[in-house]
């Protein structure tokens, strides 16, 4: 396969938010002074240029502006970033360009500006469709504002998606099924549905440890997961990845780059990348602190603090870990080529017997619906 025909993604991280959500452990920062967007746009362009010199000749098939809250950027800043990508790499004519947005930072005029700048898909951080849950999650919008934002997205873009968090405190399977049906009515083609996880270092972690925040027990969490799968399947948005649901053909192409083990450049504070340079896979990560990243880029042309060379075993393990999240599963032959050894047939036979995986007619290895809730154990077993 020629280089131009392979998927190549560019991830751009905008690290700023209006406020920090109590469950969030992403690289996001609140600044009360105005952000110097011109300076950041120049730094993004510089890091794109340096990265393109290391990984030339790629055709960009997807761009993802994530964060933080990228919809706090002026459309002109987004345009400058997209122009820089187009200047240093070839961009596919059908490129997917996604921008993450919060319902609190959505205005019709701004969305029209993003559309004019080249964005063709938005992903909205809705998180819940009832006000009590939104308040508990520390969100700054109401359910009504969230649905209004979805309507604005629908008017501005052919492709849009939104996120919801489930397994929230006091949530029952019946409540979640109702919320999910409303979400699917509004979502059109794509939904990202995440179980609430309590991450160390977040305010929710301290509350959880102190017994002040109770999440559903294992049995209820499993029932909520089952309701998610059943409702989405029935209403035409089956899971194509463990937390992502879409109508056929509406999958997020950028996220498929990650899960299929393709190459992507990571641009901006705290961004990760995977680049093939001279036949070796590099795992890159940039400085997380926005102002420190700026200074690094202005001095060195990039903000990299990590540039690890992955050996064949690490590449194969990563391919397994990411690829088995997908409903389409993995090609075991590709695993063998990456690792230099095949997957253990005895382990495959045992997991098939347990009903955790299947090997389909084309030879692809896929996790079953009963295997997905214990995916980590399945991956660990196969990788051992």
From TrEMBL:
Keywords: 4Fe-4S, Chaperone, Cytoplasm, Heme, Iron, Iron-sulfur, Metal-binding, S-adenosyl-L-methionine. Gene3D superfamilies: Aldolase class I. It is found in: Cytoplasm. Residues 2-238 form the Radical SAM core domain. Its cofactor is [4Fe-4S] cluster. InterPro entries: Aldolase_TIM (IPR013785), Coproporphyrinogen-III_oxidase (IPR034505), Elp3/MiaA/NifB-like_rSAM (IPR006638), HemN_C (IPR010723), HemW-like (IPR004559), rSAM (IPR007197), rSAM_sf (IPR058240). Probably acts as a heme chaperone, transferring heme to an unknown acceptor. Binds one molecule of heme per monomer, possibly covalently. Binds 1 [4Fe-4S] cluster. The cluster is coordinated with 3 cysteines and an exchangeable S-adenosyl-L-methionine. PANTHER family: COPROPORPHYRINIGEN III OXIDASE (PTHR13932), RADICAL S-ADENOSYL METHIONINE DOMAIN-CONTAINING PROTEIN 1, MITOCHONDRIAL (PTHR13932:SF5). Belongs to the anaerobic coproporphyrinogen-III oxidase family. HemW subfamily. This is Heme chaperone HemW.
